[in-house]
From TrEMBL:
SUPFAM superfamilies: Cytokine. Keywords: Developmental protein, Differentiation, Mitogen. Belongs to the heparin-binding growth factors family. This is Fibroblast growth factor 12. One of its GO terms (molecular function) is growth factor activity. GO terms for biological process: cell differentiation; positive regulation of cell division. It comes from Bambusicola thoracicus.
Length: 75
């Protein structure tokens, strides 16, 4: 537990902030509040590949299943 507290910062940077949106199929998608595409201005989205590794934000689109997450209800 002590090791985990040493690794986590006390203050979040702008790179750690994401916008949470509910997609039309009730999945949740996360987009960066800091980074955008150079040419189009499209937001970068958080996505995972088939192995569960993080994908590059500029390669992920909000319509692809790799960026869709299932929300867990709080009980």
């Amino acid at each position: 537990m002590i090791l985990a507290s040493c690794l986590l910062p006390d203050v979040f940077t702008p790179e750690c902030k994401f916008k949470e949106s509910v997609f039309e199929n009730y999945y949740v998608i996360y987009s960066s509040t800091l980074y955008r595409q150079q040419e189009s201005g499209r937001a970068w989205f958080l996505g995972l590949n088939k192995e569960g590794q993080i994908m590059k934000g500029n390669r992920v689109k909000k319509t692809k299943p790799s960026s869709h997450f299932v929300p867990k209800p709080i009980e």
